[in-house]
Write a structure and sequence with these properties.
This protein has 297 residues and is of the alpha/beta class. The protein is built from 12 helices and 10 strands.
Length: 297
Amino acid sequence: MSDTDLKPWQWPEERWRGVVDGVRAGKTLKPASWKDGARCAVAFSFDSDHETGELRDGGRSIGVMAQGQYGARQGVPRIRALLDRHGIKATFFVPAVSAMLYPDEQRSHVVEGHEVALHGWIHERNTLLEAADERDLQFRAADVLETITGMRPVGIRTPSWDFSPNTLAITREMGLLYDSSLMADVDCYELLMGGEPTGVVELPVEWIRDDAAYLLMDRWAGLRPHIAPSDILDIFKREFDGAYREGGIFQVTMHPDIIGHRSRMWLLEELVDYIRGHEGVWFATHADVVRHARTAG
């Protein structure tokens, strides 16, 4: 039996260690304090998938695409109005196809001081792609965002946080500042590839701090919203309390078509009010959080 025919439980140690060490968390980049001496950094992010989740799967369900369109028609305006009221700068991770469908939306983000970052081409699943295809899509997506917004993106969040064995090498080749798709820590850390530092910083995510984990509705997959907004607010508050106590980062991932409904925007408004009730909090884009962590960490 050749080595390639072995099941994972039959692998020699060298092989499974090689898999584990392909992409790994390196040194922690936790600064002693945040900008202007702030105790805690708050990084809000919104994944503007819009219609791309269904388009990726063939675009056969007009109903699902309408749900995605809600994110652009209602969700994004509601979110941006809330951010503007509170003077908060956030990061919008945008698939290239979403950016082409709604170019003015992306330009408005930049005008208002928000960050527009990479989120794939059409919300593809990277682990299903050949390396050359993944590379082509990531480079083309960056070109599209730069053409539309006038700014080259410096960060990426892989669609569905699906990180292939080739993703980090492509991200490094592109010279990106950071990734925000992995979950090895709560603070920023440098990504290692094959045991070697890459210079790419990870701003980690977590399903606990993602609205889709609680509120996604998928008619055919049997997924149903199963936690009330008030209960999600309690979870987010507890996550913030921990970050504030530890002097770290409170990072949240949300989606305009999910959080952007009236009863759910209440959750976001209450969360912002709660956080703003604490002294020494810095609201910042993902890029700004990473830049500070890299220089001061």
